[in-house]
Amino acid sequence: MIDVPFDRETIQRLIDELEIDMTRGTIREMNLLVNAAEKEFNTRFVRMEFGVPGLEASQLAARAEAQMLIEEGVSNTYPPFQGTPELKQAGSDFCKAFMDLDIPAECVIPTVGSMQGCFIAVGLAGFHNPEKDTILFLDPGFPVNKLQTKFYGLESISMDLKDFRGSDLIREVDRLCTEHAVGGCMWSSPNNPAWIVLSEDELRGLAEVFDRHGVIAIEDMAYFGMDFREDYSVPFEPPFQPTIARYTDRVFIILSSSKLFSYAGQRCGLTLIPPGFAQQRYPALRDRFTKGRILDAFIHGGIYPLTSGVSQGSQKGLATLLRAAVDRTYNPWLEVREYQRRAGFMKRQFQENGFYLVYDKDCEKPLADGFYFTIAYPGMNGSELVKELIHYGISAITLKVTGSTKEGLRACVSLFAQDQFEDLAHRLKRFHEDHPIQVPAVAASGS
Predict the structure, then answer these.
(1) Is 440 inside a domain boundary?
(2) CA triplet 293, 150, 383: central angle to 5 degrees?
(3) Beta carbons of 217 and 209 less than 8 angstroms apart
(4) Which of 6, 173, 204, 384 satisfies CB 3.0 to 4.6 Å to 380 for a cystine?
(5) Using one digit for the tens of pLDDT, what is the confidence trace for 27-40?
(6) Rounded Cα–Cα distance for residues 369 and 254 (Å)
(7) Which pLDDT band, with edges at 50, 70 and 90, does 446 fall under?
(8) pLDDT tens for residues 52-63?
(9) Where is the domain boundary, 326, 341, 369?
(10) Beta bridge pairs of residue 111
(11) pTM of the model
């Protein structure tokens, strides 16, 4: 077993060579630092900085892709901008089976990963009304979405879900939409990284606020059905994945294949647009997206100039996975429950060694164990903690990077391997021994 901590001068040299500011190191920067440290010390880190799949993708998709490329000979033809009919219908069926929503195939748009869907949705929300150029983020969240807003030259504001839940959340969002020119609001549920899930009452209240203020919702479902406190895996039977689309039409629902299906490398996601919203027209969109109707603007003003569609092979693979889930011949939730097991073990190890959960409740209920959790250590801020853990062969990113107002770290469980259980326990034990928690002295009372 590798001894820790690692040599501090060597770690600092690597940080300096890579020119990383540890107070706001990005996911990719931390990834570069850990790669360099693993090579330097010839050891494996417990890697929690990178939110990538840690499971193999189903061979169903690979076989379907290969068969299509070989037998149908589509490599020399461009995909349709709006997506292949097969995937569009499969997405519509999946939506009905697991969300109980009627989204026609016409309104299911394949994108190059859910990242592209988010990018186009942010643009449409930010430019649909010339008087509303601000995107509101319910943080913490995925850092890149704010970069997308910045790319467009839009304004952004945020609020921390740690401080506002239930009716307090609705009142605060209403206040922000009243005081700022909010054109769109974006969040993920389950949340990256807090693993919070917005309740039906919160979604209903947000929908009322958004409709009153003319705000477009952007609902990022990158971790679809992965709140393991409920079983969302049975098609056409409740419970269904919570969604704001039950209460308002004005929403882009962003679906990812990366986490639920471990299909990240093929870059294929879906954006679902309720039919009523898809037909709405906003003349202001014509200047930037060439079309005023939402559906046309998304496809011809977004998909076309960015990538001219999604590869037909990956669309075939995702369509196969969606159809198998609906037909009950494949249950991806059985596989991704492995993340629940890893999170449970990792949380216990951290908490037994002096750490605590930053986001520890979900409307006063215990959080589910899932893809992410958040940690802090008494007496250290986030940047101090992330740097110190590097010396113990453990990597993460600070919560500040995610837009959180709290001190601490985001921990992703996906790359934590079965053979690292003892390593993590050993490294955290040594960290705790080297960083004793100072208990405040209790003042003696006089008599």
Answers:
(1) no
(2) 140
(3) no
(4) 384
(5) 889 999 999 999 99
(6) 22
(7) very low
(8) 999 999 999 999
(9) 326
(10) 269
(11) 0.94
